[in-house]
Design a protein that fits this description.
- By secondary structure, the protein is α+β, with helices and mostly antiparallel strands.
- It has helices spanning about 20-35, 45-55, 55-70, 105-115, 120-130, 175-180, 220-225, 230-250, and strands spanning about 10, 40-45, 75-80, 95-100, 140-145, 150-155, 165-170, 185-190, 195-200, 205-210, 215-220, 255-260, 265-270, 300-305.
- About 30% of the residues lie in helices and about 25% in strands.
- A six-stranded antiparallel β-sheet has the order 1-2-5-3-4-14, with helices on both faces.
- It has eight helices and 14 strands.
- Helix 2 crosses helix 3 (about 55-70) and helix 2 packs across helix 4 (about 105-115).
- It folds into two domains: about 10-145, ATP-grasp fold, A domain (Dna Ligase, domain 1), CATH 3.30.1490.20; about 150-300, ATP-grasp fold, B domain (D-amino Acid Aminotransferase, Chain A, domain 1, 2-Layer Sandwich), CATH 3.30.470.20.
């Protein structure tokens, strides 16, 4: 393959094709171009990721240049072609690696994400959905948001299908929520932004960045564990973000977000799949975010998407 034809990284400010960069990267790029608060980043097309995993020198040198451009700390997220679509979500299958602080760590992270698409569980999921067996794994590399609080937002109730926003949140990085490590705070909002329910969870652990890289799990004091981690202004900001996603993407959304230093960031947007009818499900609208990461986390600093 000539250098001109070789797949190359592309900034999230560019228009990215799902077929080369995966749906996650394409949607983050669309959000970036629309002015949504997405952390700066670069998308790696699946052919480039293949080359990194194959230990090709040129690809690894280009990846090192990505690290130098963005600077530490970084996060690397899977963005396999077909990963987050209306028909399929690979929640619990593919890796995310957090708080990468050196060029070798980023290279190793991209290779590990490539391998995660070839795990027995990932292959079994692909077979169940009758997807092509050989995955095409792209990766998104972004500046890491060292979150004060983080979580998920569903633009429809994912349990009973009600036309309302459901927010689940915890202290620190959002991995504690999507991995089911805590009972998150739960909020329900009407379409006009009015808050109709605030339920404090038990957020007795928080995932924080570790100085040497990766993450660490810390204990949260009893008082803080039971204190709501979002105020009215933050809920209003999340409501506004959901409305902007309506304008940009249409459909229903499953968002991952974080607050850091008083600023809201959009970390991921995927289509909300398998929405039940409003008559079905839990009448209290309790979202079950642990199902989005049913495989859990295998070790500190290593998350599953």
């Amino acid at each position: 393959m000539t250098e001109a034809a070789a797949p190359k990284p592309a900034a999230l400010t560019e228009e990215l094709e799902d077929s080369r960069f995966g749906g996650k990267a394409a949607q983050l790029a669309a959000a970036t171009r629309a002015g949504l608060p997405v952390p700066a980043g670069v998308a790696l097309p699946y052919g480039f990721v293949d080359a990194v995993a194959a230990d090709e020198r040129d690809a690894r040198q280009r990846l090192a240049a990505v690290f130098r451009t963005l600077g530490a700390p970084l996060v690397a997220r899977s963005s396999a072609v077909g990963e987050d679509s209306e028909q399929a979500s690979f929640a619990g299958q593919h890796l995310t690696q957090l708080n990468l602080r050196s060029e070798p760590e980023l290279v190793d992270a991209v290779s590990a994400i490539w391998r995660s698409a070839r795990s027995p569980s990932a292959f079994a999921y692909r077979e169940r959905l009758r997807l092509p067996r050989e995955p095409r794994m792209a990766v998104v590399v972004q500046e890491l948001v060292d979150a004060d609080s983080a979580g998920v937002l569903f633009s429809r109730n994912p349990v009973n299908g009600s036309d309302e926003l459901v927010v689940e949140a915890a202290w620190g990085l959002g991995e504690s929520v999507v991995a089911g490590l805590v009972i998150p705070d739960r909020f329900r909002l009407r379409r006009d932004g009015a808050v109709v329910a605030r339920i404090a969870g038990l957020k007795d652990v928080a995932i924080r960045t570790a100085p040497e890289g990766g993450t660490t799990r810390i204990q949260v004091s009893e008082g803080l564990a039971r204190e709501l981690c979002l105020d009215d202004a933050q809920l209003a900001a999340l409501h506004a973000l959901a409305l902007r996603c309506d304008e940009v993407f249409g459909g229903s959304h499953d968002l991952e977000w974080a607050f850091a230093g008083g600023r809201l960031y959009l970390l991921q947007r995927r289509a909300l799949t398998a929405i039940p009818s409003p008559a079905a499900g839990d009448p209290h609208g309790r979202a079950r975010t642990q199902n989005r990461s049913e495989a859990g986390r295998r070790e500190e600093g290593l998350a599953r998407e």
